[in-house]
């Protein structure tokens, strides 16, 4: 990670503090690279004001890269809540070196900018309107619907619920511009976004060179979608699913990026440059997932991410439950949703049913399956965790490592963290450390020459109740060889399944991001306890 510099750090910090202070009128600030610094690593304050995102946009130019923070207000159940939007704007005439700096300095910039509820990375000022950001905030917080009605909402300026990496680009190195079969792709995505349509998934893939078209669209949920995935293709999918919280059914959209294991390296590099444009075709989504094997996709894993993002996976433990909670098994088989009783069956026949769409909607309820969900992140699964995998990952002492994970998940145990890593240059994953020192003890185990995986137990307070939270840490040391880094992506699905459920995850090579304060900020952002209600 490249460190960011400032022409005047105090001035920049003061500008951020003004925006974050509800008692000031200042509701935006903007920073850009200082043109007088040839190293392209120094930020300066560009401006600030009280006229919202319109004021921020007026300070932008096309020859620089900018980072901004905007304070906005969202309304949930009659309450006003403060929301912060982090903006990254890449001017169309910005120098290539500035654009290159974005990737290397992203973590430093995020650390400087601090907490935010949603993030927008764009080179299109139309995506930075008041309405566009309000829709983006509403989608992320749940204060508006993410379902687009046919012909009633323009796709332009909708923004993205999930953070987007990189720059929206119309060209790709060595591969030419992305060409989209816009009518077909829009029609397929629109079907998925309509609750009245039986189609609950759409799969977009490259049909000819760099042309993106529709590979399939229909009902049957994830199982049907997976049948069309090919290990030698790059595909993008949108999946509609449902979550139930406090008796209310909510629609959730999942963006799946599939990069097959057998896709040539050059092809992967070319399609990676299209990611921003493809995200605009897919549109709003609540959760995004990137995998390289169809076997890494399961509704259990998807719903874990959906519920963690929405807050419906939070389970409050009473003092009595915490004291008497039994030691759980380190490996638990999960129920597979297949056959005639599958929750997808009702969606496939929704159009033929005389009942309303809501009556035939498959639901995943955090309250109706208390026997498994009450442990939420407190259990692990053997589903998809073979001892020997196609990606050549091995867990020689699976029983011992699962026991260590179980200790962390046991509220009655003093052990609150464990760290797993690779045994030398092999693909064998072994237990490196466990203990009771929390985040700081885990942090001491992180070595810049190693790739490590950690799980730590923390506690959050919601309305006076203590809730248990688990954070999964993926550490990739700055001195890990490039070839080893390339292999880590193929191990991700199996390692995630081995650790089991968690509320928040972080991938980093920066020790400053592995602190109790930083992880608690992420937990509170995910659970909603970081929202601030304004009392007039």
Task: Give a short overview.
The chain has 536 residues and is an alpha/beta fold. The protein has helices at residues 9-20, 52-58, 96-113, 130-141, 182-193, 221-226, 265-272, 275-282, 299-310, 319-324, 345-348, 370-373, 398-409, 438-444, 482-499, 516-527; strands at residues 5-6, 28-33, 42-49, 65-76, 79-90, 118-122, 179-180, 201-208, 211-218, 234-245, 248-259, 287-291, 364-365, 417-422, 429-435, 451-462, 465-476, 504-508, 532-533.
DSSP strand tally: 19
End-to-end Cα distance, whole Å, is 42 Å
Weakly predicted, low-confidence segments? 145-175, 314-319, 324-391, 532-536
Main sheet attributes: strand count, strand direction, barrel closure = 7 strands, mixed
**Helical fraction:** 25-40%
Overall residue-averaged pLDDT value: 76
The helix tally amounts to 16
Describe the protein's architecture and organization.
The protein has helices spanning 9-20, 52-58, 96-113, 130-141, 182-193, 221-226, 265-272, 275-282, 299-310, 319-324, 345-348, 370-373, 398-409, 438-444, 482-499, 516-527, and strands spanning 5-6, 28-33, 42-49, 65-76, 79-90, 118-122, 179-180, 201-208, 211-218, 234-245, 248-259, 287-291, 364-365, 417-422, 429-435, 451-462, 465-476, 504-508, 532-533. 29% of the residues lie in helices and 26% in strands. Helix 15 links the parallel strand 17 (465-476) and strand 18 (504-508). The two termini are 42 Å apart. The chain has 16 helices and 19 strands. The strands form 3 sheets. Strands 1, 2, 3, 4, 5, 6 and 19 form a 7-stranded mixed beta sheet that branches. Strands 7, 8, 9, 10, 11, 12 and 13 form a 7-stranded mixed beta sheet that branches. The chain has a 5-stranded mixed beta sheet with strand order 15-14-16-17-18, with helices on both faces. With 536 residues, it is an alpha/beta fold. The radius of gyration is 23 Å and the shape is globular. The longest helix has 18 residues, at 96-113.
